[in-house]
Specification:
The complex is a heterodimer of chains A (119) and B (112). With 119 residues, chain A is mainly beta. Chain A is built from no helices and 13 strands. By secondary structure, chain B is an all-beta fold. Helices cover 0% and strands 56% of the residues of chain B. Classes of the chains: A mainly beta (119), B mainly beta (112). The interface between A and B is medium-sized, with 29 and 26 residues.
């Protein structure tokens, strides 16, 4: 299993440019999460999908951010236009419904992250 | 609104010492609690997951306990090693399949 795959690993761009981050979840997982990590605020949810449908986008900062999940194996997070305050590490995570006796478990597995720097 | 707090923010210990990292959460109605490890510049590695019906989970030298009623979890690391140096993050979710809410982490440094 290749784990959660994110690309690019590093992105440096100028203010005003469009940035697209990509994520491939673990095969068979039906939930996908986008988180952002900064020194000041730690790790925070941006948006998550269940079965390719956005469930909670309350963490998306503003209209400059958008996310899509066109199929079960691919998701994008787009920032347009980018600003210096968007500089952070963006993580994608996935999970699936598993059976643990009578109990269902949703363990989340994280990708390596994309380090975004907007100058 | 669920809030997760981790104390201390940083911890330095000599090799071989047993140590405890603390995590507290404000809403006891959690579904799962996960402990993660993050190395500098790297992603998150899941260490242990405790379901709300469980009291503890163990993996090697790691033991995580959960006390839902008091809103607390501890991560116990036995016989610490320099390779344990990393940031340890605690996270909870309140419903099945929902996003995790993270603490700010405890940065551990184990000296040889």
């Amino acid at each position: 299993d290749a784990g959660v795959i994110q690309s690019p690993r590093h992105e440096v761009t100028e203010m005003g440019q469009e940035v697209t981050l990509r994520c491939k979840p673990i095969s068979g997982h039906n939930s996908l999460f986008w988180y952002r990590q900064t020194m000041m605020r730690g790790l925070e949810l941006l948006i998550y999908f269940n079965n390719n449908v956005p469930i909670d986008d309350s963490g998306m900062p503003e209209d400059r951010f958008s996310a899509k999940m066109p199929n079960a194996s691919f998701s994008t997070l787009k920032i347009q236009p980018s600003e210096p305050r968007d500089s952070a590490v963006y993580f994608c995570a996935s999970s699936r419904l598993t059976s643990g006796g009578l109990r269902r478990v949703y363990e989340q597995y994280f990708g390596p992250g994309t380090r975004l720097t907007v100058t | 609104k669920q809030e997760v707090t981790q104390i201390p923010a940083a911890l330095s210990v000599p090799e071989g010492e047993n140590l405890v990292l603390n995590c507290s959460f404000t809403d006891s109605a959690i579904y799962n609690l996960q402990w993660f490890r993050q190395d500098p510049g790297k992603g998150l590695t899941s260490l242990l997951l405790i379901q709300s019906s469980q009291r503890e989970q163990t993996s090697g030298r790691l033991n995580a306990s959960l006390d839902k009623s008091s809103g607390r979890s501890t991560l116990y690391i036995a016989a610490s090693q320099p390779g344990d140096s990393a940031t340890y993050l605690c996270a909870v979710n309140n419903q099945a399949g929902t996003a995790l809410i993270f603490g700010k982490g405890t940065t551990l440094s184990v000296s040889s």
